[in-house]
Amino acid sequence: MAKRRAYSNDGLGPTIERLMAETGLTYRALAEKTKLSAGYLNHIVHGNRPVPSNEVLERIAKAFDVKAEHFREYRIRAITDKLEQMPELIDRLYKRLG
Fold first, then answer.
1. What's the whole-model pTM score?
2. What angle do CA 26, 37, 12 make, to 5 degrees?
3. Is 57 contained in some domain?
4. Which domain holds residue 60?
């Protein structure tokens, strides 16, 4: 198997689907490892539920033997949390993007 990337550039659903394909985990097996329901996991993958909490993302990451940071949504939250503590950086970044 090829070396797994540290970070996924895809959204949560496609990333989980890719990890399931790479590891051979089914929704039921993933549910057992994460203590979440297979139906809930299916809804997350197909975008029928909002992005789960970081705690849930950490459980899913652990099931796939990746860091939670593998998920783009987890990284975005970390960046957002830091930006909320640094309003001057928000303004500088906003100006640079505009």
1. 0.88
2. 65
3. yes
4. 12-97
